[in-house]
Design brief:
Blueprint lengths: L24 H134 L5 H12 L1
Helix pairs in contact: 1-2
């Protein structure tokens, strides 16, 4: 048959928990002190130096990374300042080129306008001379036509042709 495993002592009385037994307290304190000293020495001689080395390396790496980041930030700020200066210079140059182009275009337009004005002035003077010549020629013909017309009108009205000198005097008086 199978027996059950149990922690009871025969006779129905339970034994106290072994760490709390009074007879073993001194030996437990002795072994506790020895284990503490061994662990302390082991940790202080082996583990703590390695741990402090790792922590020191990590701190050095962090400081190096921070210095690198600071250097990169300074470089990027310098690059941004240089970019903004280059952009401002480019804008100023573009404005200067635009002003120069505008001045050249205005000068060219002014020269072309002056040339057109001179051409129109010359054409106007020529036209005025032609009009004056045509007017003079027409006016000289008007006197002759007026003399002939006046003579014909008087002849039709009276039935007899008037004297040419009388008609010329009458026309000259009317024209002036």
């Amino acid at each position: 048959m199978a027996t059950k495993a149990h922690t009871e002592v025969a006779g129905g009385k339970k034994a106290p928990f072994p760490p709390f037994q009074g007879e073993t307290v001194a030996s437990q304190l002795f072994w506790l002190a020895i284990c503490f000293v061994v662990l302390y020495v082991g940790l202080s001689r082996m583990l703590l130096p390695r741990l402090s080395g790792v922590i020191a390396q990590r701190n050095d790496k962090i400081e190096g990374d921070l210095e690198t980041a600071s250097r990169f930030r300074n470089e990027s700020e310098a690059a941004q300042v240089a970019y903004e200066k280059a952009l401002a210079d480019a804008r100023a140059k573009a404005q200067a080129l635009a002003a120069e182009s505008q001045a050249k275009a205005a000068a060219a337009a002014d020269a072309q306008r002056k040339q057109l004005e001179d051409g129109l002035k010359n054409k106007l003077e020529a036209a005025e001379k032609q009009i004056a010549a045509t007017k003079t020629a027409a006016m000289s013909n008007v006197r002759g036509i007026a003399i002939d017309t006046a003579g014909l009108i008087v002849e039709r009205l009276t039935g007899k042709a008037p004297a040419k000198q009388a008609v010329e005097r009458a026309v000259d008086t009317a024209l002036h």
